[in-house]
Amino acid sequence: MARGGSHYVCQSCGAFYAKWQGQCTACGEWNTLVEESAPPPVGGKKGSSAPRARGGGLDFVDLHGSSAPAPRRPSGIGELDRVTGGGIVPGSAILIGGDPGIGKSTLLTQLVARLAETGARCAYISGEEAVDQVRLRAGRLGISAAPVALASATALRDILPALETDNPPDVVVIDSIQTMYLDALDSAPGTVGQVRACAQELIRAAKKRGFALILVGHVTKEGAIAGPRVLEHMVDTVLYFEGERGHQFRILRAVKNRFGPTDEIGVFEMTDRGLSEVPNPSALFLAERRDNVSGAAVFAGMEGTRPVLVEIQALVAPTSFGTPRRAVVGWDSGRLAMVMAVLDARCGLSIGAQDVYLNVAGGLRISEPAADLAVAAALVSAYSGEPVPPDMVVFGEVGLAGEVRQVGQTDARLKEALRLGFGRALIPARRAGAAQGSSGLTLTEIDRLAELVERLAPAEDNTWRRKLP
Ligand code: TYD
Ligand code: MG
């Protein structure tokens, strides 16, 4: 039973309960309820006996007005500025999430060092590592000389007074929010209540004193920033730092940004001297491509305003157990099932009974439907054993009727392919009257998925194809 002033909070979704129960009825997770004392009331407790102070009312204004665009503090790290929309906005709160060991601390150490060298006053507060460890990293990165104020602390009681001075720093990094605690709460650091209350206090201080606050957040196995989703609602910008641990590529992605775009990515490479920018990711993603291997197709995708070419690899193998396996890295497995179903129903390609593996090379995650056609090309090639021509890029959306649909920014995709030395493109048929500018590539325009199968595996030798009624 809850004692006076405490309640139970689901560590997965943040739902409140008056008494303990085994399963959270809000999100269905088991054993996630943890007792926490009530957070300090904001603006008077409901039902408290003290009368509420009367508010001052609101002054409504018009939608149009002369507000200046948000001032920004560019970091000089181009890939980071691209994702934040041109630099860090003073007074804003940024949450950066990612798996342990992916390089969050490295990126932020490099960021504060760069900012400090341009004259900004930066504070780096580490709750995870001792001062010596952070110094060691800075030494390895070759940035020890930067005038960054470094501290190792976890108690907000100590941290807040240092920030809430009349002359606060310009940028404050908290690494990580899960290690911080407020001693007004009984619960352990990292629990929903602590994380939420600490973030609230820090954000309040940032807004009041006008410093930019960067919070590091851990990511759970499921990929959400650990603890409360509420943290994502409280901050202005949410960035995810992702990548496969075995690969050296790291991708910084904005999933929420009140001051900029959310579809841009920044690409970095982890080297022995920290993270270095990759201004030309396509060349990197294609660097280890082998020609004339079946089951691979190059997709010309868009990430925000930037075209990115990646290789999509597929493998079709006999099933050794009853249920065929599907393993997908870097793409949506539901979308794979759809493309396979269309190949089966509209093109007579029964892959369904076999194991299918799909991989986006280099650790990129693709969410564009425009990758459908490239995935289909990789699958057809894997199934038939016929390689996709090595100088060909593929893009287009596939519909359930087996039609190939138009996608946006065709010209930008083709231009990038030409720049990287590709000679051919397999693309959706363009509408009559659409701008048919010369792209410099040999274009093959198709409007049915079956045409792709015909082209990649000509009819005379595709005995593996089922006759369609
Ligand atoms: P780190 O920034 O500590 O990760 P996070 O804060 O996200 O947990 O990065 C840790 C990994 O990065 C570690 O495995 C070592 C590697 N690394 C390099 O490869 N080169 C470097 O220069 C640095 C500083 C780290
Ligand atoms: Mg770290």
Summarize the structure in words.
There is one protein chain. Helices cover 24% and strands 24% of the residues. With 469 residues, it is of the alpha/beta class. The chain has a nine-stranded mixed beta sheet, with helices on both faces. The chain has a seven-stranded mixed beta sheet with strand order 15-16-14-13-17-20-21. Strand 9 (237-242) and strand 10 form a beta hairpin. Helix 8 (333-347) packs across helix 9 (372-384) and helix 9 (372-384) packs parallel to helix 11 (449-456).
| DSSP strand count | 21
Whole-number average pLDDT?
86
Strand-pairing-aware structural class? alpha/beta
- Fraction of residues in helices? 10-25%
The gyration radius over C-alpha positions equals: 26 Å
For the termini, the CA-CA separation is 67 Å
Side by side, the strands of the main sheet go 6-5-7-8-4-9-10-11-12
- Please summarize the sheet with the most strands: 9 strands, mixed
Query: How many alpha or pi helices?
Result: 11
- The general outline is globular
Instruction: List low-confidence stretches.
Output: none
Strand content: 15-25%
Write out the distinct hetero groups bound to the structure.
Answer: thymidine-5'-diphosphate, magnesium ion
Task: Summarize the structure in short.
The protein is α/β, with parallel strands linked by helices and about 475 residues long. The protein is built from eleven helices and 21 strands. Helix 9 packs parallel to helix 11.
Topology:
Elements: E1 6-10, E2 16-17, E3 33-37, H1 78-84, E4 93-98, H2 104-117, E5 122-126, H3 131-141, E6 148-152, H4 156-163, E7 171-175, H5 192-209, E8 212-218, H6 230-234, E9 237-242, E10 249-257, E11 265-271, E12 274-277, H7 281-285, E13 296-303, E14 306-317, E15 326-329, H8 333-347, E16 355-360, H9 372-384, E17 392-394, E18 397-398, E19 404-405, H10 410-419, E20 424-428, E21 442-446, H11 449-456
Parallel strand pairs: 4-8, 4-9, 5-6, 5-7, 7-8, 13-17, 15-16, 17-20, 20-21
Antiparallel strand pairs: 1-2, 1-3, 9-10, 10-11, 11-12, 13-14, 14-16, 18-19
Bound molecules: thymidine-5'-diphosphate and magnesium ion.
